[in-house]
């Protein structure tokens, strides 16, 4: 038990300090800082309550050991302490502050031409159906359909408590091995789709200066250059300091396209800051599950064998049809468990 005591002391210190900061008028009047402190305080609430219960159980155990009439209760209390300690260890693992956020997901066709675009469409349906199973809501922000079906690119939002904690493990390259419908020889082709998952940031979390933006408006076009409407409603926003460019043209209103573009821009800038912060962390504290970068191959979907393999945790199942219908829970839980194990190991608890 001695190993967890310094962590409990640090937790109590941090919790008390955050409470004091939230009461400070200077912090309270700064909306961005107040939101940040309030969020961190909420994150520490559960481990703090567990720490209090753990300390109380240890004090009770000390009391019953010194009282012969109550000595029979010691066994139950020891069991309670062991259970609380395990729960506390898990709760003390440094939680990603973005875990509770909604997400913006970008899916793009990778290698494989038309078949890759069809596969990007399948990945989009899989991730959308997974959202339905989890009780999350989805909203398409932008879709660039290919002429043969599927998507060259599709961007959508997933809304629901803890959406990022689920979807962050979907970032990377999804590789498919199957016989395309257009393949007359029955040969198996390998294609890919890339997925990027970003927490949706609130306005108070990402400060965007208007003078840092270059905004272009132009006429929306559909597949093959066909005009969608006759007004300059499409919007392209360039964030000059970072070079990040976001274009939206799906809505008929220039204002709506601008609002959607700003949502995606804000998420991308927030993700850039997250990446910098993660790079500053020591290797021991960084998660080894995967980076979520598009170039990282995370899964292979093999149609001939009805097989899906997740390369990060070496988990293989033979029920690809169910997976593509959004039944991804087993993979999320397995990756989350491995992530927790590595984090506990790195924290030395």
List keywords for this structure.
11 strands, 349 residues, alpha+beta, Alpha-Beta Plaits, 3-stranded antiparallel sheet, 8-stranded mixed sheet, Double Stranded RNA Binding Domain, 3 domains
Structure commentary:
This protein has helices at 5-23, 25-28, 31-65, 74-92, 113-134, 163-167, 254-280, 320-324, 329-347, and strands spanning 103-109, 137-145, 151-159, 172-178, 189-199, 213-218, 234-239, 244-248, 297-302, 307-310, 315-317. 28% of the residues are buried. It has 349 residues and is of the alpha+beta class. The radius of gyration is 25 Å and the shape is flat. It has 9 helices and 11 strands. α1 packs across α3 (31-65) and α3 (31-65) packs antiparallel against α4 (74-92). It folds into 3 domains: 2-92; 103-204 and 291-347, Alpha-Beta Plaits, CATH 3.30.70; 210-279, Double Stranded RNA Binding Domain (2-Layer Sandwich). The longest helix is centred in the N-terminal third of the chain and has 35 residues, at 31-65. Strands 2-3-1-5-4-9-10-11 form an 8-stranded mixed sheet.
Q: What layout of secondary structure does this protein have?
A:
Layout: H1 5-23, H2 25-28, H3 31-65, H4 74-92, E1 103-109, H5 113-134, E2 137-145, E3 151-159, H6 163-167, E4 172-178, E5 189-199, E6 213-218, E7 234-239, E8 244-248, H7 254-280, E9 297-302, E10 307-310, E11 315-317, H8 320-324, H9 329-347
Parallel strand pairs: 4-9
Antiparallel strand pairs: 1-3, 1-5, 2-3, 4-5, 6-7, 7-8, 9-10, 10-11
């Amino acid at each position: 038990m001695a190993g967890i005591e310094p962590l409990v002391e640090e937790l109590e210190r941090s919790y008390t300090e955050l409470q004091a900061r939230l009461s400070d008028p200077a912090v309270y009047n700064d909306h961005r800082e107040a939101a940040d402190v309030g969020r961190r305080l909420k994150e520490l609430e559960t481990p703090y309550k567990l720490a209090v219960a753990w300390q109380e159980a240890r004090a009770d155990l000390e009391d019953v050991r010194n009282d012969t009439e109550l000595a029979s209760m010691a066994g139950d209390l020891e069991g309670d302490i062991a259970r609380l300690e395990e729960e506390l260890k898990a709760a003390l693992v440094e939680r990603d502050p973005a875990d509770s956020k909604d997400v913006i997901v970008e899916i793009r066709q990778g290698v494989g031409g038309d078949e890759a675009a069809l596969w990007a469409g399948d990945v989009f349906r899989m991730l959308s159906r997974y959202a339905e199973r989890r009780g999350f809501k989805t909203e398409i922000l932008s879709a660039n359909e290919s002429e043969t079906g599927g998507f060259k690119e599709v961007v959508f939002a997933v809304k629901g408590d803890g959406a990022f904690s689920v979807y962050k493990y979907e970032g990377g390259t999804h590789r498919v091995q199957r016989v395309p419908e257009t393949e007359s020889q029955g040969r198996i082709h390998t294609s890919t789709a890339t997925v990027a998952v970003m927490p949706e940031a609130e306005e108070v979390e990402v400060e965007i200066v208007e003078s840092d933006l270059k905004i272009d408006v132009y006429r929306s076009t559909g597949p093959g250059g066909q005009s969608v409407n006759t007004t300059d409603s499409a919007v392209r926003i360039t964030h000059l300091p970072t070079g990040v460019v976001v274009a939206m043209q799906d809505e008929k209103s220039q204002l709506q396209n601008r609002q959607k573009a700003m949502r995606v821009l804000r998420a991308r800038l927030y993700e850039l800051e997250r990446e910098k912060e993660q790079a500053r962390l020591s290797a021991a504290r960084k998660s080894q599950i995967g980076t979520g970068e598009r170039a990282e191959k995370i899964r292979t979907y093999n149609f001939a064998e009805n097989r899906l393999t997740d390369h990060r945790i070496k988990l293989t199942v033979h029920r690809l049809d169910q997976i593509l219908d959004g039944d991804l829970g087993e993979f999320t839980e397995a990756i989350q468990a491995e992530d927790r194990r590595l984090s506990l190991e790195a924290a030395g608890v």
